[in-house]
Every structure is written in structure tokens, then in C-alpha cells.
């Protein structure tokens, strides 16, 4: 599972160490050598789990699909983006104010409080 490209449809076999990676950045993190550039690439489709080779010098529109299952693997990459969310119930359904329970508010004191009434009224 690639953490750099969320919608990776194929795994790529590195020509230098012959290991499978989802993207070049995964190879850079895992390997201690630079990625060897090659025009003849070996892919493994993640949908049908079959391998195939492509020559990237003659890349046509029909080469954007897996030859076995027609899975479209040349997609615009979706990369993870930082986001800040409230991990709770949907706020749109429950419109009450959100409250941070970690900070306890001091109890309010009043002359009408039953506990303090004998001390205040004298």
C-alpha cells in the first residue's frame, strides 16, 4: 500500500534491484541506491494480479489499460493532504455546541445555591 499515491493501480518492478514498489518514492525510502531509469517497465496490475511489460518509448492511449483486465492504470495521482477534522459524530446532525471535556469549568457560585445558602444568608 503506497502512502504517496493513494489510487495506485499497478506496482512497478524496479530494474535495479528487481523488487516491487508502488511508486518511485517508495523505492527511494526502502532502497539504499537510486532508481535505475529504464524504458522497458514491468507492471503488476492490482486488480487482476497479473504482470505485463510496457515499452515507454512507444506509449499510446491503449497502453493506459491493463492488457488482461482493461483496468485503467494511468490516472491522475491522488496524494494525501493534511486535514483537520473532528473525530466524533456528525456535527451537522447534532447542532449542539462542541465542548472540550479536558478543561473543566469552575462551578458557579450563587446566593441561590442550596449548598452555600446557610453561609451567605447568615
Automatic annotation (TrEMBL):
GO biological process: protein import into mitochondrial intermembrane space
Boundaries of every CHY-type domain copy: 1-71
Organism name: Pleomassaria siparia CBS 279.74
One term under GO cellular component: mitochondrial intermembrane space
Keywords: Metal-binding, Zinc, Zinc-finger
Domain of life of the organism encoding this protein: Eukaryota
GO molecular function, one term: zinc ion binding
Identification of the protein by name: CHY-type domain-containing protein
Listed InterPro entries: Mito_Tim_assembly_helper, Znf_CHY, Znf_CHY_sf
Pfam families membership: zf-CHY (PF05495)
Amino acid at each position: 500500500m503506497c502512502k504517496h499515491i493513494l489510487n495506485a493501480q499497478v506496482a512497478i518492478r524496479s530494474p535495479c534491484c528487481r523488487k516491487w514498489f508502488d511508486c518511485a518514492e517508495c523505492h527511494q525510502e526502502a532502497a539504499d541506491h537510486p532508481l535505475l531509469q529504464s524504458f522497458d517497465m514491468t507492471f503488476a496490475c492490482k486488480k487482476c494480479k497479473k504482470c505485463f511489460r510496457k515499452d515507454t518509448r512507444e506509449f499510446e492511449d491503449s497502453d493506459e489499460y491493463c492488457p488482461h483486465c482493461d483496468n485503467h492504470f494511468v490516472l491522475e495521482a491522488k496524494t494525501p493532504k493534511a486535514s483537520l477534522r473532528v473525530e466524533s459524530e456528525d456535527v451537522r446532525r447534532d447542532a449542539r455546541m462542541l465542548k472540550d471535556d479536558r478543561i473543566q469549568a469552575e462551578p458557579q457560585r450563587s446566593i441561590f445555591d442550596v449548598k452555600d445558602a446557610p453561609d451567605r444568608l447568615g
